[in-house]
Amino acid sequence: MFDSYKHFLETPGYHKIIGEDYLIVEFKCPIKEELFAAWSECHSIVYVLNGQKKWITPDNDYLVQADQSIFIRKGAFKNQQYFEESFCVLMFFMKDDFIKKCIENDIRNETTELHKMEHPEVIYRIDVTESLRVLYESFFSYLKEPNKTPQKIVELKFREMLMNICLNPKNKNIKNVLFTLAQQSEYPIEQIMEEQYFYNLNIEEYARLCGKSLSTFKRYFKKAYNTTPSKWLLSKRLNLARELMLNTDFTIQQICYDCGFESDSHFVRSFKSTYGITPNKWRIQKTPAAS
């Protein structure tokens, strides 16, 4: 799966600014497929400069066009691309520590109306005012000459941008989700796994999402679920696959993709190993027409 933060952090050729706990990059999407999955260990803000792209989550689809913006919690999602016109975007990646710093030092001082959210969405639309648009565009000069701009200036501009978003009453959900993220000393493994198990992430990537080393992640996982991550993921994905086979007319290939399996053959092999029958034969047996 495409690791967006790591790709833009490590790949040369992009206009970007790398901070201690943030990354700002201007880019045209490097993926050529119309539909693809991506993930990031950082939260992010996207501002579309040209073209359009659709972000797809289990709960909703978000078509984002030029001069529109969204906030994305860290984790995985799917993208649908449109090749009729070129797509260009500004992307602001933020680690948890950066959000905590902004909440404690900036946003909390300007507003008392902060509420913790029990089940925040993966994606939120951002209302783009003229002042926010000017702030977004102000990063272009820094991106063109990143080595000539002190990091402190860029960080202050980034924090000003977040403040602008949060002080807009139309963005109250953004303000509250940032506050919620800042209150979490660490992400509960259960929350991340339940939200992300149907994406094709490997164990090391799930560990990074949880902000833990691989060994620490496995230890915490064993304590939470009394099994290994691999066994738990396989069980969850197979159960979801069976549900989709019974309740939808999706093809086996689509179900494989939607449940996080590496390939059709991996899904069929795992299903038969667990249930002693292929997915197609199981589906035929369970459909009403077969009874």
From TrEMBL:
Domain HTH araC/xylS-type: 187-285
TM stretches of this protein: none
Pfam families in alphabetical order: ExsA_N, HTH_18
A single GO molecular function term of this UniProt record: sequence-specific DNA binding
Source organism superkingdom: Bacteria
InterPro entries reported for this sequence: ExsA-like_N, Homeodomain-like_sf, HTH_AraC, HTH_AraC-typ_CS, Tscrpt_reg_AraC-type_HTH
Keywords: DNA-binding, Transcription, Transcription regulation
The protein's name in its UniProt record: AraC-type DNA-binding protein
Organism placement in taxonomy: Bacteria, Pseudomonadati, Bacteroidota, Flavobacteriia, Flavobacteriales
